Amino acid sequence: MTKRSLWIGLLLPSLLLASPLWAADGDSKSDDSNEINQAISTATEAYQAGELSQAVTQLDYAATLIRQLQAGELGKLFPEPLSGWEADKVDSQAGAAGLFGGGINASRSYRKGDNRLEISIMKDSPLLQTMGMLFANPSMATMGGYKVKRIKGHTAMSKAEDNSQELQMMIDNRILLQFHGRNISEDDLNAYAEAIDIEAITKL
Q1: Helix axis angle, 3-23 to 30-48, nearest 10°
Q2: Residues 188, 143 within the same domain
Q3: What SS3 class is residue 75?
Q4: For the CA atoms of the chain, what is the radius of gyration?
Q5: Is there a single domain that holds both residue 114 and residue 62?
């Protein structure tokens, strides 16, 4: 058995088990769920027929659709605007496996007069490995001008320069939360960080 056929044989069962999770979420996902199931079914038939390239193509397509669904769900987990603040629509996207390693990311902008804040979430991307090294060695962060603290039990790094502030949190070495603010108080920045649903993001 070749490495590719072994990989397909291992991946097919996991995708088959994963797809019903999306079907159970309601009518809004039914079209995507049907398309995912169809792609997996086509991949299974192609694999059994020995058409390995076609099987890989269909599996990649199914995985891309699932990542898109994840990105959409991720966009629902941003905190609501604080009192007096307004928020723009969420911008979410799923990276192609070959380009971003299949990671997903989303961002949302908030405003209150001259105060601005952008919150971004990056999840399951190989690009996070470098950031993980920084969080694993807080002394490196302090050398870069960051202050290290704990928010909701997780390590966070904050930095203030002139009228700008930033806060970063790494969750389980696979999720990066970033808060970039301008003319925003530290209290408001921390309030948004406390309001984000970290547990829901890790389960997605």
Answers
A1: 160
A2: yes
A3: helix
A4: 20
A5: no
- Amino acid occupying residue 26: G
Report the alpha-carbon distance of residue 121 to residue 75 in Å, rounded.
9
- Of 143 and 43, more confident: 43
Contacts of 129 (CB under 8 A, 6+ apart): none
The answer to whether 91 and 201 have CB atoms below 8 angstroms apart is no
Distance CA(168)–CA(131), nearest Å, equals: 10
- Both 88 and 175 in one domain: the answer is yes
- Domain end, chosen from 27, 50, 72, is at 72
Alpha helix (H) ranges present in the chain? 3-23, 30-48, 52-74, 97-100, 128-136, 138-143, 186-195, 198-203
As given in the structure block, the two tokens for residue 160 are 């203030």
Provide the 10 A C-beta neighbour count for residue 40. 23
Q: What is the CATH number of the domain that holds 169?
A: 3.40.1000.10
84 and 63 in a single domain? The answer is no
Residue numbers of the domain that contains 183: 78-203
Query: 116 and 50 share a domain?
Result: no
Write the pLDDT tens digit of every residue in 6-25.
444 444 444 443 434 443 44
The verdict on 68 and 91 lying in the same domain is no
pLDDT tens digits, residue range 93-125?
775 444 445 578 889 999 999 999 999 998 888
